[in-house]
Amino acid sequence: MMKFRFRRQGADPQREKLKQELFAFNKTVEHGFPNQPSALAFDPELRIMAIGTRSGAVKIYGAPGVEFTGLHREMATVTQMHFLPGQGRLLTLLDDSSLHLWEIVHHNGCAHLEEALSFQLPARLGFDGASGPPTLAHITVILLVAAGNMAALGTEGGSVFFLDVPTLTLMEGQTLGPEEVLRSVPDDYRCGKALGPVESLQGHVRDPTRILIGYSRGLLVIWNRAAQCADRVFLGNQQLESLCWERSGSTLVSSHSDGSYAIWSADAGSSPVMQPTVATMPYGPFPCKAINKILWRDCASGGHFIIFSGGMPRASYGDRHCVSVLRADTLVTLDFTSRIIDFFTVHSTRPEDEFDEPQALAVLLEEELVVLDLQMPGWPVLPAPYLAPLHSSAITCSAHVANVPAKLWARIVSAGEQQSAPPAAGASSWPITGGRNLAQEPSQRGLLLTGHEDGTVRFWDASGVALRPLYKLSTAGLFQTDCEHADSLAQAPEDDWPPFRKVGCFDPYSDDPRLGVQKVALCKYTAQMVVAGTAGQVLVLELSDVPSEQAVSVASMDLLQDREGFTWKGHERLSPRTGPLPWPAGFQPRVLVQCLPPAAVTAVTLHTEWSLVAFGTSHGFGLFDYQRKSPVLARCTLHPNDSLAMEGPLSRVKSLKKSLRQSFRRIRKSRVSGKKRAVNTNSKLQEANAQLAEQACPHDVEMTPVQRRIEPRSADDSLSGVVRCLYFADTFLRDAAHHGPTMWAGTNSGSVFAYALEVPLAAAGSEKRSERAVEAVLGKEVQLMHRAPVVAIAVLDGRGRPLPEPFEASRDLAQAPDMQGGHAVLIASEEQFKVFTLPKVSAKTKFKLTAHEGCRVRKVALATFASVACEDYAETCLACLTNLGDVHVFSVPGLRPQVHYSCIRKEDISGIASCVFTRHGQGFYLISPSEFERFSLSARNITEPLCALDIRWSHGAAQASYKLQESPKLSQANGTPGILLAPQSRDGSPNPVCGTKAGAPERPEATLSPMSVDSAISADTTLDTTGDITVEDVQDFLG
Q: Which ranges of the sequence are coiled-coil (predicted)?
């Protein structure tokens, strides 16, 4: 009757306390470039920058390591952002015409971002009726005046309202309607069409009582708020797009929808002004696109900058994304590869200064941020210390390397510096430098490697909060690609006009999809790495500090082993270039191994001590000796019915039909087999009994849960031969007395192959082995009962610890493994974890995750968790991510569940497929094509922003106008529970708006919301994870 039994008394309190000291889940920081940016702001006094996104996120950046994150409760687009200068406060406008006031506040010496007030504009003010005030429909533009204490709001109806910013309330009797403005214009202009929406509001640097108002029709008005009258009127007739008021107030510049801009004189004289002093169409005379925004900046050395976006000839270059920079006779057309969101200049804003003296131009694009140095000749691009576009080419794989030796780190940094031009003498530094980073220097250096669609591998400094680019490795130069001939024909010389200059590094187009990187592995002790790609190419590379010119050894390995009846229908293999090739300093290829058929590589591993590399595809696996440049082993893993593996990634129509047919057959078969079993049809009675049993049980007694019935997978499932993991280990395979090199391979059908390797010993005093051939002999072959795909394999020594990496023990960098006690092998499949003794391979311990939890394993890693209470205590545990987005941690080798957390939304298939764990209990996964979310499972090893900001306003004084309240816990968009701060709305009612992390109080946070701000759209990310996203992933998503 009852399907559970009493096992033991409740959990040990001592163990529970230890768990709290070892494990804690936190989403800490988002690395990369914000997805779908929509607004930009800059505080020239505090030197901080804010970016708003279409999902309602607010991100503030200062000096490297200074970051603040917030999220509007409404999933609405941030259309405008404005800093209150020097106050650490930010006013945001959403596309639903709601206003929000954010504040950077300090707690325990650290700063974080909170939303203080919100204000939803009413549809109509006052009473309805013809005599009522004008409607406040949609805000088009905001101008902060009176040191940020008041805001002017321009609307679509042509009215200008005034808002008290500290309280976010409208100021009565201050509204300026279009009728009042029309009284100051001549009758013939008044009788024309309506003024239209307010397109621009500009303030005077030295006289805050004067406001420049620009209407869509083209009318410009300098309005004196003190006298409530128009000082000057400029009768423009061209549709207005943007305005800028020169620093002295004597000159205005307006840009228009026809691609022209006009300069108006605001000096004393007759009013209204009928004509501008200068009107020009810079890229005319043919029809041009609108100039969306224009800036005028004065220089002490004479002359001025005019900077504008758009205005390109409509027919010839209407599809270009350009910002033009004009000074005197010098015009440069900055040509970007993605849409322009906004731009600003870093310049002097102090009223006493006579000139603007622009130092830098920052341009926010849809896919990257570009900053140019305006003080250096040629206006070079300044390298960004953060906000790098991770997706300059689509990310296809990633890997993390922890505890990188200082010598290797310096060599990689040096190679990266040689790739970029050295900064000229007198070059400016990064201009966004606000705040202070309070985080301690990282105790160890961490590398994040990302493989990309264009055949590049990028190296990132992942040691701290700011993800900094270090070095880029390109593999495309080794191959002759499909597009080279077409590119040479297309490279016709462009005209000298417009004077285009390509700027930015975002380039989503790949020369050849076969170049895509699928797997990377790096040995941090020998500076050797392996890069494997989509067309079966496996490259072994070695770091060199100097450029060289050398030929690359090429070898082929047939993984089908002449098996009959299989014909590859996919892409051709890449053709390598012959002869000596020039290679820059950095990682240089030594050996190229080409798998046949040229299918995507699904697994790879490198053992530099033995000079061996192993790789697997959907057809089998191979072992290659890259010291002797000779193959050692090739094994085909295909099942006779595995036709899908032969069709390649571009020929799936017939196979999809076959796969669906097989799925329906399995469903039908399981239903038939289910009917044959005697079952109790009274399900409601069963549920009631189960509930009664649960209530009757003591809460301090642990029960064995009801295990789900798992259907064995068919042996002829498509893609059953895919090699999922490869592993090298020095362990006991042949007998218990002698250990030696072994290689392990796991497949999609639950098969595990273990090979004993005969590797020649290294000569005395040398780390290089002799030149004798390596031999491989099949030692064991294990078939898992349910044929679940094997995700990972690891050998544990006599103390139950994982074996060290190559050279780690021989160089005394890690404790030597225990070779006296019995070894064990941990095999992780998608359904369960199982520990087998070696060399007998008899089952020792197991945990059936699918049977207990109803989920499947997607990612697995062994990690070390250090205690926060004791410096010297640490445990090695198994961390796994499931298809439901949950993270589980198990003890090793006992496989006892420790903790589990909800990490990623189960619908986010790409996020789950992109997850990578680190060796110290952290992890990364993509929340959008351009952003990694960083999370920590360790209570001690946490990387999060800890920073402070010097602001000039007193937060305590402002607390009188509103009060922060704490609301109950709610679920954030990515499934992580958090505490929400509920600021008061303008009528005093609580208005919950944003989340904070529920973390330990002794670690003050610098971000308000470390959650996935773009998780609502993260399921749409473009991520090529061949061999990682499986049929089960899609079934889980659809079901």
A: none
